[in-house]
Amino acid sequence: MNLTVTKETLIGEILEADRTTAPYFFEMGMHCLGCPSSTMESLEEACMVHGVPVEELVEKLNGHMSR
C-alpha cells in the first residue's frame, strides 16, 4: 500500500501500510502501538501528546516509506 503521510494520517494507517515504521513511534515515547486508542490517533494528536514536532516526523516517515 502506497501511503503519503500527513499530520492527519492515523497511526493505525501508517502501521498497516508499513510495520517497519514502528521504531519512529518508539523513539517519540509511544510504546503502546497495539492499543486501540493509539492506532485511532492522528499523527498530529500523538505528536502533541509526546511533544514531538509533527512536520519533522511526517518527513521522516515519508522518507522511510519511499525507500
Give a description of the structure:
This protein has 67 residues and is an all-alpha fold. The chain has one domain (11-65). Helices cover 55% and strands 0% of the residues. The chain has five helices and no strands. The protein has helices spanning 11-17, 22-27, 36-39, 43-50, 54-65. The longest helix is centred in the last third of the chain and has 12 residues, at 54-65. It is globular and about 25 Å long.
Name some characteristics of this structure.
67 residues; mainly alpha; 55% helix
Q: Determine the fraction of residues in helical runs and give it as a percent range.
A: 55-70%
The low-confidence runs, each spanning 5 or more residues with pLDDT under 50, are none
Q: Could you tell me the radius of gyration in angstroms?
A: 10 Å
Mean pLDDT: 92
Global outline: globular
Protein name: DUF1858 domain-containing protein
Domain DUF1858: 6-58
Organism: Lacrimispora amygdalina
Brief description of this entry?
The chain is mainly α. The protein has helices at residues 11-17, 22-27, 36-39, 43-50, 54-65.
Topology:
Elements: H1 11-17, H2 22-27, H3 36-39, H4 43-50, H5 54-65
